[in-house]
Amino acid sequence: MSRQTIVAANWKMNGNAELAAQMCRGLNDEKFNADQQVIICPPAPYLALLQANISNSQIACGAQNINENEKGAFTGEISALMLNDLQVQYVILGHSERRAMFHDSTELVAEKVAYALDSGLTPILCIGETLEEREDGETESRLSYQLAPVIAKVGIESFKNVVVAYEPVWAIGTGKTASAEIAQQTHEFIRSYLASFDADVAQQVPLLYGGSVNAKNCEELFAQADIDGGLIGGASLNVEEFKKICQAV
Ligand SMILES: O=C[C@H](O)COP(=O)(O)O
């Protein structure tokens, strides 16, 4: 079955109003494949600016995180309702930087995914192993450990509205991409793990690869059977390079 292909930009804490304007100018007139979605996830202050200036119906915006509460005294946080207000459709959850630096535990990520889904947002759920875990042969157990609480919380049916991004921590921002073979093997495992809950749902979930993807290595990665696109960090800060990546999927 054919799945939606997605190229998502995660600017992390980078970019400015000028990059937002350049990105809109550069991408609005691009022609993408019929089933393709492009998602730009800037820092929250630039969401409204991008939303207002994107005119291509295949480009959507995403946030990089939400709080698991509806509203209240949570200084510095943003809520799903605020994203609804701006008509933002996607939200990255469980990124390894948030798990490592901001204490987003697997249970908290599951809560955030549940809250995002309840609010009509589409979560881009990030999972991935460290280099040590890979070398110790723990990749699969780590990935299932990260997926299991989310499946337990929201149910496998809800994964029809979830995008999963596999991002090996050792490949993020390091210039060391997983080889296409390793990435495919791992994506195949993720799909088979989801299939152990529901085979039909597993076939529908877009699985993105993230970790030092650039205009040179993306084609081989995107050609793999279980890689449905990418979550792009550093290379998404350059409009021309990001365009090439979008065209390669
Ligand atoms: O969310 C994006 C990933 O962390 C990948 O970042 P990167 O492309 O800079 O390695």
Automatic annotation (TrEMBL):
Principal subcellular localisation of the protein: cytoplasm
UniProt EC number: 5.3.1.1
GO MF annotations, alphabetized: triose-phosphate isomerase activity
Known catalytic reactions: D-glyceraldehyde 3-phosphate = dihydroxyacetone phosphate
UniProt pathway annotation: Carbohydrate biosynthesis; gluconeogenesis; Carbohydrate degradation; glycolysis; D-glyceraldehyde 3-phosphate from glycerone phosphate: step 1/1; Carbohydrate metabolism; erythritol degradation
Keyword Acetylation: no
Keywords associated with the record: Cytoplasm, Gluconeogenesis, Glycolysis, Isomerase
Transmembrane segments: none
Active-site residue list: H95 (electrophile), E167 (proton acceptor)
Gene3D superfamilies listed in its UniProt record: Aldolase class I
Cell location: Cytoplasm
Binding site for substrate: N10, W11, K12, G173, S212, G233, G234
Class of this enzyme: isomerase
Summary of the function given for this chain in its UniProt record: Involved in the gluconeogenesis. Catalyzes stereospecifically the conversion of dihydroxyacetone phosphate (DHAP) to D-glyceraldehyde-3-phosphate (G3P).
Quaternary state and interactors: Homodimer.
Family: Belongs to the triosephosphate isomerase family.
PANTHER family: TRIOSEPHOSPHATE ISOMERASE
Name of the featured protein: Triosephosphate isomerase
Source species of the chain: Thalassotalea nanhaiensis
Gene for this chain: tpiA
